[in-house]
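User: Second chain of the day. Same drill as before.
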Amino acid sequence: MKLLEIVEGDKIKCESCGWSWKISEGGDDLYICHKCGNDTNVDTIDESLKELKFIDSISDKHQKEIDYNREIGLFRDFDISKYKKMYPPKNDSKDTKEELKTLSSLPEQKDFVEKYDRIFKSFKEYAEQKDHKIPKSQIKEVIKSAAGIVYELKYHFNRPRPQQIAEKHDMKIGGMDLESAKSPSYPSGHSVQSKIVGEMLVESTKDLEYRNIAEKISISRNVGRVHFPSDSKLGEKLGEDLFEFLKNKR
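Assistant: Same format as last time:
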């Protein structure tokens, strides 16, 4: 049943007991029946939510990133087939709605999000503070090559960003409009790339702070409401595996 089938003008009707109430008087739980307590929204969410995608087609820029890694990137021989079977929670699932609630509960920290939006810069600034000599060209190549893997998975799943799904639920979760969030949500590219770079630098410098920086980069995407926690979780897992892949190639 579609949501529109229970909305009558400016009122919502409970399909369980027949009671109706004004939308303006629904309060925070708009679809909870005021008489019998039935949650009319559980089975009546707009059907379009189930089919919602981030975008209909891949951008030329992102296709080029995918092609670059497939042809000459560091991860061209990395098998991503198992990751293509690791699906995110469905758009209309309780898990996704709980993730939205988690995001909305996080403190909004614009400075924190903007600081860790730039992956290379985040590591570079700390390295300079500690006078660490880091392989800048290699790090940039890792980030570029990993982007191809990430985009291939992102467009495979085509998961909407949190704001897109939140709008379908009439939820206000806050957040920021970041230029780095103009692609499907799952997995988090920042989580993938920062994990690889962080582990590389921990290995070469023995300084565990690089791992902490990677974690902050990953978390910043949740604080900015541009990624679900499940996006970050898969991203960190993939980043760990890509790091191990690089180690084994030496």
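Residues 18 and 170 are 23 Å apart (CA to CA).

User: Great, on to the next one.
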